[in-house]
UniProtKB/TrEMBL annotation:
The lineage of its organism: Eukaryota, Viridiplantae, Streptophyta, Embryophyta, Tracheophyta. Keywords: Leucine-rich repeat, Membrane, Repeat, Signal, Transmembrane, Transmembrane helix. The chain crosses the membrane at residues 1085-1115, 1203-1223. GO terms for cellular component: membrane. Residues 1-19 form the signal peptide. SUPFAM superfamilies: L domain-like. Pfam families: LRR_1, Malectin_like. Residues 24-340, 602-918, 1272-1374 form the Malectin-like domain. It is a single-pass membrane protein. This is Malectin-like domain-containing protein. It is found in: Membrane.
């Protein structure tokens, strides 16, 4: 189970079973005890990235609230508390702004706990705000974090309290969920109740008593709360509320939100007096007019607790109603109301938490920037790490470069999911830890520019898939014996398997006896001939081998290791072009035509260019989209000529317009939609609008009204895209007009460029008509406002109005009019209709005085937002513009008003206003390397220009067809499936897409050679059924990790000279390393035959053999440099042995005849892991140098054949020549046969398959008695037939059978049920024919089976789709019915 690091307050902030509670006075520096006997400690000097502040307000609630801590830099700042794993804690965070910064601008920010979202904190100017949560701690620490969500709104905290609760309290709630306090009320109490009266320091507030209710006090001296499982304090049961009428009822109004929420509610009851025999108090609790309990009879002197868990919204009603036999009205003493969270995370994987903790403890700078959960919540992942998107996330990348780290690296080997580690440009010392090479997933390791010393560990130097950069470490050695300089690119030069060091190059001395005899004693022609054969048979092979060894060493010295990845140069980012309209020649012929921007207007669906009444030039987009249609609206209510046509997109899920713009340009984009019943269906669609990979809006069109959306943002590349995405079946997206404007880069500069502005409204108060281009040079549309009662319109008498002082350049025309009040003491209230939920708002107010004021007149006023003012007094200038920007969080309850100051003689006025919603942080789009590669593919294959438009990966719901993307902040393309698209022509270079794991290009007509770069990209490549030709590139043929399929390419060759057929599964057969020696041996056989034919010319034999030696010496320079041994025939059938030899760079030659090489040459017999090889002296030295698992089996025998031949059998020279020819011919034939039979295929990796629902109940609909009908009596143990002749089946597994308690059972089927007790998703799986139309009915009858009177709410799903939110009742049947045509079984 993952846990958080202990960040702050180590020893003294501990809450275990017997420990004290923790109370932190944030911003304070001392420890003290308050009036409630609570000990408070300060947090001063703990945080380096924060400040302690003192509030300015005189409305300080308590001493604790007089100081606060504000966090000024990091995106997430955390308090971490130690606690026993499994502890139930109550955490309360309090916030009192008190205008500490004198800006009168209370901020909004996020509150988090243990990697989970808690709340959006909305502070006020001088009111205390606090939030409370209860949850079970899942590790030995828990963290409370504050996260900044808006620019210039710094998070702060006034107090943090942690209380340890009894583990049996609130036990009905699963420990995987948290309880967020909505309210905790003590009815009838005279004052707030908390510690020491409540030993758990829960705060019980007073309740406002409504009309018809009275407060009553209990006359019991003591109240026993032992029977209330959640331990309410007796003090909250000493009072109650009841009705003044014996027949009345009590209605509770907890103030639930508009949307559905899961609610957990505790009702507490205790009778206030001893009742007489004729008295009875009995009542029921009703939720939404459904009885939620058995009759409640409060006990005297004791507590009774009623627990309810239900789904509620703003319309939910909760009431207590007397039963028919009750003589007294209902009462209630106290209540707790909680919202139930979603399922809590388990935090980042504990192995990564452990490793990051080691790093944090070793390098103090990390203690300043790392706190809380490393990966969660995902918007607040720690700086300098990247995480996966798993349920329990893993850390996949670690970038600690340029942090001035010093000292040795700690052991963080537990972080075994790391793919990238970057530690360059620090001062890290000591040896490179061996564990770095053992990290199974590590691919890139950058240790450059540090002070590492000693050798490179073998785990790194022998790791073929690891890219190591270690330049700038002067004391770093490649091995324990010698230091090697790094390559020019900083990578370490790794020796190949044949690099045996200095010893390996020495070799044995050449036997020159044959040459001496052949040149000094020509009179003994017979001896010369014999010695010529001797040279041919032994010396030439030795020289060939020696030269090949020398070539291998030369290759190693030059850094030419086999299989190295080609280094890619930096390339420019590609432009993905969709419809690109050029304002000079708009009938585009290629995808490269783009909007050259200053101002662009596209009349969607039109085919001509024209100028409208506002002098705007509109161009048509007809002929650009193949997957769309141009349509003409049917409505007579057409707003303008532009709206008379539209473009509707009929097939793709995302369709985009793209325009070119300089990177960093501020643009205004306006998209307009006029349905006008173009399809004669009177069914206006709804769909999504996107920009540059970001969500923009959910477009909701109407029958005959114009709908427009406007956004302003900074372009992050040299193109920008506007996309429409279909969200509902049969609701096709369309667009009527698209307008793009370039704005001055200084405009709207108070908003961070990483955020966009969505227009809410732009109003010119007092104007008579809409203002736009040419009056507004940026073509913003300013609409007139509706003037309410008490408001009057006034015109300015200034001839000219200077807008130079207004940074956002409003047009002077919108400042020529204004509105004000008819009363000099009146105020102006702006009604902007914000949504119910909180939104971040950016608002620009524009003011200009309408007349010159005399010395006795003054217009001065303040703007108020929710009763606080963000500005100094506003005095509008005459003949000039004044702009007041404001950024704040708003909702439907937000009020905005302009109120005169006390010294003003004139009422407030306002000329114009702009209101924007501020977006979330914008994406940076898909990685530019992938955009470049996809652009090359798109430009090469025209069909892809129809499929692909906009951002390839973002938003994630609208990723391009045929690509798959990672979930990184800047996503990478990981899979490319371009199969069966009838692609033709050669493959372009998309080598920049270096995150690809899978490439599938099969079943096309792609021609030309297979590009070499493919071998450096993916693990699986399917190139089958194309027209590739030529050789297989070495980067592919030597890549043993690659699964390659190339069947159906008849002209494809494995090597440059010979074609091999693929295996039956289409994979390429890869030959053993020995195949490169065939050419040399054929040459030797040819020469041997020639020499044998001319043995009679004994006088020139010596010269012939000298030339033969030289020829072989030259030829050996061009053959491959591999270590060669002699193998037994049985070795070739051992696939594992062949792979081992291949991995170690060993070439194998066969043994033939009855004589082993050890008896015919200077060979040593060695045993390598149970296999016998014969090696010469050089290879034996290489085996020793490389520590291969081989041992000599007997001493090497010296070869005395030259003496025997030269002294004993000189008369049989012709016989030996023939024997030499035959011997080599047989060896050649056997070598070719062995090589052909000894080919090694590349290994493949198995893939895992998972099912949608595991351990579900599986039923075959075709096995039933009545064909096509399945009826399951859930909870039953037998099969039976009901009164409707329907066969009912039993069900089981991962669940329990329950019997309902209600007497209101609808039928026998409803008398039992099945309840699922463990898994979060439990499924019934039914086998049907693909394409069958099915009706599914699910029925639910709670019937108080668990005697808790708490009917549950849960989700119902089908085939991976959401069906319904099931809300059960106490004793009523509910069922849901659904019809669908399944696409799969």
């Amino acid at each position: 189970m993952a846990g958080c690091l202990v960040i702050f307050f180590l020893a003294f902030l501990s809450i275990s079973g017997n420990a004290d509670d923790v109370s932190i006075d944030c911003g304070a520096s001392d420890t003290y005890t308050d009036e409630n006997s609570i000990v408070w400690i300060g947090d001063d000097d703990i945080f380096k990235n924060s400040q302690s502040e003192v509030v300015q307000s005189s409305n300080t609630v308590s001493h604790v609230m007089s100081t606060l801590r504000v966090f000024t830099s990091l995106k997430k700042n955390c308090y971490t508390i130690t606690a026993d794993n499994g502890t139930l804690v109550l955490v309360r965070a309090s916030f009192f702004y008190g205008n500490y910064d004198k800006k009168s601008s209370p901020p909004s920010f996020h509150l988090l706990f243990h990697g989970n979202y808690w709340a959006t904190v909305n502070t006020t100017l001088d009111q205390l705000v606090y939030y409370e949560v209860m949850y079970v701690v899942k590790s030995d620490t828990t963290s409370i974090c504050l996260a900044q969500t808006h620019p210039n709104q710094l998070p702060f905290i006034s107090a943090l309290e942690v209380r340890n609760l009894d583990s049996k309290m609130y036990a009905i709630v699963d420990p995987n969920y948290a309880l967020f306090l909505r309210s905790r009320v003590a009815y009838g109490a005279n004052s707030t109740v908390r510690f020491p009266d409540d030993r758990y320091d829960r705060i019980w507030r007073l309740a406002r008593i409504g009309s018809g209710l009275v407060s009553v006090a209990s006359d019991a001296k003591l109240i026993d709360v032992a029977n209330a499982p959640d331990n309410p304090p007796p003090e909250v049961l000493q009072n109650a509320v009841t009705t003044s009428s014996s027949s009345g009822s009590i209605t509770l109004n907890p103030g639930f939100p508009d949307q559905d929420v899961s609610v957990y509610m505790n009702f507490y009851f205790s009778e206030v007096t001893v009742l007489g025999t004729t008295q009875k108090r009995s009542f029921n609790a009703y939720i939404d007019n459904i009885k939620a309990s058995e009759p409640i009879i409060p006990p005297y002197g004791e507590a009774r607790e009623l627990i309810a868990n239900f789904t509620a919204s703003a319309n939910t009603s909760i009431s207590l109603v007397a039963t028919t036999d009750s003589t007294l009205p209902p009462l209630i003493n106290a209540v707790e109301v909680f919202y139930v969270s979603g399922r809590l995370t388990d935090g980042t994987d504990s192995k990564d938490v452990e490793g990051l903790g080691e790093l944090r403890n070793s390098f103090s700078v990390l203690q300043e920037i790392w706190s809380g959960d490393p990966c969660l919540p995902s918007p607040y992942t720690w700086d300098r790490i990247s995480c996966s998107n798993d349920v329990i996330p893993r850390v996949t990348a670690l970038d600690l470069s340029s942090l001035d780290l010093s000292g040795p690296l700690p052991d963080f080997s537990s972080m075994d999911a790391l793919v990238t580690i970057d530690l360059h440009n620090n001062s890290i010392t000591g040896p490179i830890p061996d564990f770095l090479g053992a990290l199974a997933n590590l691919e890139d390791l950058n240790l450059a520019d540090n002070s590492f010393s000693g050798p490179i560990p073998p785990s790194i130097s022998s790791n073929k898939k690891l890219k190591l950069v270690a330049s700038g470490n002067p004391n770093l050695c490649v091995s324990g014996k010698s230091c090697q300089p790094t390559s020019t690119d900083g990578t370490i030069t790794k020796s190949s398997p044949s690099g045996g060091g200095n010893k390996a190059v020495k070799g044995k001395k050449r036997n020159k006896l044959s040459v001496i005899l052949g040149t000094t004693i020509p009179i003994f022609l017979i001896i010369l001939a014999i010695l010529g054969c001797k040279i041919y048979i032994e010396v030439v092979p030795f020289l060939v081998h020696q030269n090949r060894k020398t070539a291998a060493i030369a290759v190693i010295a030059a850094g030419q290791t086999g299989g190295a990845n080609t280094k890619l140069g930096k390339v420019d980012e590609a432009v993905i072009n969709e419809i690109r309209v050029n304002n000079i020649q708009h009938h585009a012929t290629t995808s490269e035509n783009a909007v050259q921007l200053v101002r662009q207007h596209i009349d969607c669906g039109a085919s001509e260019t024209y100028t409208d009444e506002n002098s705007l030039v509109w161009i048509g987009d007809d002929g650009f989209f193949k997957n769309s249609q141009s349509a003409v609206v049917q409505s007579s209510n057409t707003v303008s000529h532009v709206m008379s046509t539209l473009r509707v997109f009929t097939s793709l899920k995302k369709n985009c317009y793209s325009f070119t713009a300089d990177k960093g340009t501020l643009v205004l984009v306006r998209a307009s939609f006029f349905y006008g019943n173009y399809d004669k269906k009177s069914s206006p669609p709804s769909f999504h609008l996107l920009f540059d990979g970001n969500y923009w809006a959910n477009v909701k069109t109407t029958l005959d009204e114009l709908v427009s959306y406007e956004v302003m943002y900074v372009v992050k590349s040299d193109t920008s895209s506007i996309c429409l995405a279909q969200t509902q079946p049969y609701q096709l997206p369309f667009i009527s007009a698209l307008e793009v404007r370039i704005l001055d880069s200084k405009m709207y500069g108070h908003v961070d460029t990483d955020y966009a502005l969505f227009l809410r409204s732009r109003v010119a108060y007092g104007a008579n008509s809409t203002v736009r281009f040419p009056d507004d040079v940026y073509d913003r549309i300013w609409v007139p406002a509706r003037i309410g009662s008490g408001i009057v319109s006034v015109a300015s008498d200034a001839i000219l109005i200077d807008v130079a002082n207004a940074p956002d350049n409003p047009p002077p025309q919108v400042l020529h009019n204004a509105i004000t009040t008819s009363s000099s003491s009146g105020s102006i209230t702006l009604n902007l209709a914000f949504p119910d939920q909180d939104v971040s708002v950016c608002m620009n107010f524009y003011f200009s005085e309408v007349t010159e004021l005399d010395t006795t007149q003054k217009r001065s006023f303040k703007s108020y937002i929710d009763n606080y003012t963000p500005s100094e007094p506003i005095i509008p200038p005459y003949g000039e513009a004044m702009e007041i920007p404001a950024t704040f969080t708003a909702s439907a309850k937000t009020s905005i008003s302009l109120v005169s100051t006390f010294d003003s003689t004139l009422p407030p006025l306002i000329n114009a206003v702009e209101v924007f919603y501020v977006s979330g942080r914008l994406t940076d789009g898909t990685d530019s390397k992938d955009v470049q590669g996809l652009g090359e593919l798109r430009n090469s294959f025209s069909i892809l220009q129809e499929y692909w438009s906009g951002d390839p990966c973002l938003p994630s719901a609208y990723t391009w067809d045929r690509v798959s993307c990672s979930n990184d902040v800047i996503p990478r393309v990981t899979a490319l499936d371009l199969s069966s698209l009838d692609l033709s022509g050669p493959l372009p270079d998309f080598s920049s897409m270096d995150a690809l794991v899978t490439i599938d290009l099969h079943n096309n007509s792609i021609t030309g050679p297979i590009p070499d770069f493919l071998g450096a990209l993916a693990n699986l490549e399917n190139l089958a059924d194309n027209s590739f030709r030529g050789p297989l590139p070495p980067s592919i043929s030597s890549n043993k990790w690659l699964k390659l399929v190339v069947s159906g390419n008849p002209n494809l060759c494995v090597s440059g000279k010979s074609c091999q057929p693929p295996n039956t599964d289409g994979t390429i057969k890869k030959s053993t390393p020995s195949k490169g020696r065939i050419r040399g041996k054929m040459f030797k056989v040819l020469l041997g035959t020639t020499i044998s034919s001319f043995m009679v010319i004994l006088s020139i034999v010596g010269a012939s053999h000298v030339l033969l030696v030289l020829a072989f010496f030259v030829f050996s320079a061009i053959v491959d440099a591999q270590v060669t041994v002699y193998c037994q025939p049985s070795d070739y059938t051992n696939e594992a042995l062949m792979q081992w030899m291949y991995d170690n760079g060993i070439s194998c030659l066969p043994i033939t005849g009855t004589t082993t090489p050890s008896t015919s040459s200077k060979m040593t017999e060695v045993d390598c892991e149970g296999s016998i090889f014969y090696v010469d002296e050089n290879v034996l030295q290489w085996i020793y140098d490389n520590n291969l698992p081989c041992q000599p089996t007997r001493k090497r025998k010296s070869n005395k054949l030259p003496i025997i031949l030269g002294t004993v059998i000189p008369i049989f020279f012709l016989f030996w020549a023939i024997v030499g020819f035959v011997f080599h011919h047989r060896r050649k034939t056997a070598a070719i046969a062995a090589i052909t039979a000894g080919q090694v295929e590349g290994a493949t990796k198995p893939t895992d398959q998972g099912s949608l629902c595991t351990d579900g109940i599986k039923i075959n609909i075709h096995d039933q008695t009545i064909q096509g009908i399945v009826s399951i009596d859930c909870g039953a143990s037998r099969t039976y037939t009901d009164e409707n002749s329907i066969d009912m089946m039993e069900s089981s597994k991962n669940s329990q059978s329950g019997v309902v308690r209600s007497s209101n059972t609808v039928s026998h089927v409803m008398s039992i049920l099945r309840v699922f007790t463990s898994l979060k998703k439990n499924c019934f799986s039914i086998t049907v024919y693909k394409g069958s139309l099915v009706l599914v009915r699910a029925s639910f009858f709670y019937g108080n089976y668990d005697k808790k009177s708490s009917p549950p709410s849960f989700h119902l799903l089908f085939d991976g789709n959401y069906w319904a939110n099931v809300k059960t009742t106490l004793d009523q049947k509910r069922y849901n019915k659904h019809l669908s045509c399944p696409n799969t079984t």
